[in-house]
Design brief:
Elements: H1 2-17, H2 26-36, H3 53-56, H4 72-86, E1 92-97, E2 104-109, H5 111-116, H6 120-147, H7 154-165, H8 174-186, E3 188-192, H9 195-206, H10 209-218, H11 227-233, H12 253-259, H13 272-290, H14 293-302, H15 305-314, H16 321-327, H17 335-352, H18 354-358, E4 375-379, H19 385-391, H20 399-402, E5 418-421, E6 430-433, H21 436-440
Antiparallel strand pairs: 1-2, 1-3, 4-5, 4-6
Helix pairs in contact: 1-2, 2-6, 4-17, 6-8, 10-13, 11-17, 13-14, 14-17
Length: 455
């Protein structure tokens, strides 16, 4: 891969100096080079496993509740996602079988590419092209293996060795052999590493760790559930998906409006504190309906409807998720749900052993306020955000940061609006919402706790 990148860069420099190309942009030139040259033939290399996985799943420090131990059914997929979150960053792309994640055929390392080129659009374009070429090359190897039964080259040997290590017997029967290698060719999928995103998410989480941990205790919810936010967004405060899912917990608008205020002036999905309270309400509801955390976590992604149908079909009051997935066939479950819960379990273990895995050193935080003392308040009066933040800026430099759900500073917020503060706000104009009050109402209904406005 290193030689290929250097070849591309040298070709790029030569083309850029050509009179015909002097007015073309970098994006066009590099695309022309890559698209005109096939990916260099390299030996396929399987994914090296994080050596700490097997010791961490034993949970020797007793940091993980028994309901979140890894069932045998999810072990292989959990191992794959553990590597994605702890071993490989966004410079690495793993090519694997989409149905059986233990079939990992190659790891593409783009580090030299990202170090040499700074334009992100060019990098994405190059990566996409190289990944497509690599998958096409793998498919060609699979199709050759349908008919080829001896005199294998290095590529073919490496593929056969991967299958052998995963206890896949290569059929001698022509029809069965064709079926096997055709399915493998069709099932190829690429997955980008996520380690650096998780590391950044852990840094983001530091500012909100104490209050969020307090909320989990208030809701009597397992702290392991914080992994859902890392799974959904890597705890990226500004995360927004193509379908409009927003914030660290990735609430879509329809679901989010059940729990939080979402309008042109404020979107409480953006606030890690408020959205965590909304997510805790949702997760606890799922648990109440389904009776198990493996089902409740899966329902966060797929909803409760099909899980309830599967439970009725099984005739078991509290079936395990593995029982459901083995017996209930529906597009909303199966592959997506298996991987959602397996990746959740991988993150539960990675977050519980983050010091051993990531060895993070937190620099001086961008948050200078007392974020250990963050509390939820509801206003008694209409509130002008711009004026409010200016008045209290000397007392709390980061008050505006803690209230990123307020989109428009200039428009007055109505009585009963939520304010997150690291300083004590006067009880003449604000009520602190804590303890059971947080559990009794959804955040969008905290306005019911607002008192008389005293100016």
């Amino acid at each position: 891969m290193g030689k290929l990148v250097l070849s591309i860069l040298f070709s790029f420099q030569a083309m850029a100096l050509s009179p015909d190309n002097i007015f073309q942009d970098d994006y066009t030139l590099i695309n022309k080079i890559v698209l005109s040259k096939p990916l260099r033939k390299l030996k396929f290399k399987p994914l090296p496993t994080n050596k700490k996985f097997h010791s961490i799943i034993q949970d020797s420090k007793k940091r993980i509740g028994k309901e979140f131990k890894i069932p045998k059914y999810f072990l292989s997929n959990t191992k794959f996602w553990f590597d994605i979150y702890t071993q490989y960053d966004t410079n690495h792309v793993i090519i694997h079988d989409k149905d059986n994640l233990s079939f990992v055929f190659d790891v593409i390392d783009f580090r030299q590419l990202t170090h040499a080129i700074k334009n992100k659009n060019i990098i994405y374009s190059l990566q996409a092209t190289l990944i497509e070429d690599r998958i096409a090359e793998l498919r060609t190897v699979f199709h050759r293996l349908i008919k080829k039964t001896h005199s294998y080259n290095e590529q073919e040997k490496s593929i056969l060795n991967i299958l052998k290590k995963n206890h896949i017997r290569i059929p001698k029967n022509k029809i069965k052999r064709k079926r096997l290698f055709t399915r493998l060719a069709q099932n190829l999928r690429s997955q980008t590493g996520q380690k650096n995103n998780i590391v950044q998410g852990l840094r983001n989480f530091q500012a909100f760790k104490k209050p969020i941990k307090r909320f989990f205790k208030t809701f009597d919810a397992p702290y392991e559930l914080r992994a859902v936010a890392f799974l959904e967004s890597s705890f990226n405060i500004n995360a927004k998906s193509k379908v409009g899912a927003t914030g660290v917990w990735q609430f879509v608008r329809f679901i989010g409006k059940h729990f939080m205020r979402i309008n042109k002036v404020q979107d409480e999905r953006l606030n890690p504190i408020i959205s965590t309270l909304g997510a805790l309400h949702l997760l606890k509801q799922n648990y109440k309906i389904l009776g198990r955390w493996d089902l409740a976590v899966t329902a966060y992604n797929s909803g409760t409807k099909h899980l309830l149908k599967a439970r009725r079909k099984l005739g078991v009051k509290k079936p395990t998720l593995s029982q459901v997935l083995k017996t209930y066939d529906h597009p909303h479950l199966g592959f997506a749900s298996t991987n959602f819960y397996a990746s959740f379990l991988a993150l539960v273990h990675a977050l519980s052993y983050q010091d051993e895995l990531y060895k993070l050193k937190y620099p001086r935080s961008i948050i200078r306020g007392d974020y250990n003392n963050l509390h939820v308040y509801v206003s008694h009066c209409d509130l002008n955000p711009k004026r409010f933040f200016q008045i209290l800026k000397k007392s709390s430099e980061d008050l505006r940061y803690f209230n990123n759900h307020i989109i428009k500073n200039e428009i007055d917020l109505p009585k009963g609006s939520i304010i997150i503060s690291d300083i004590n706000l006067t009880n003449k104009r604000f009520s602190r919402i804590a303890g059971q009050k947080l559990r009794n109402l959804y955040p969008k209904n905290y306005f019911k706790y607002s008192g008389k406005c005293i100016r």
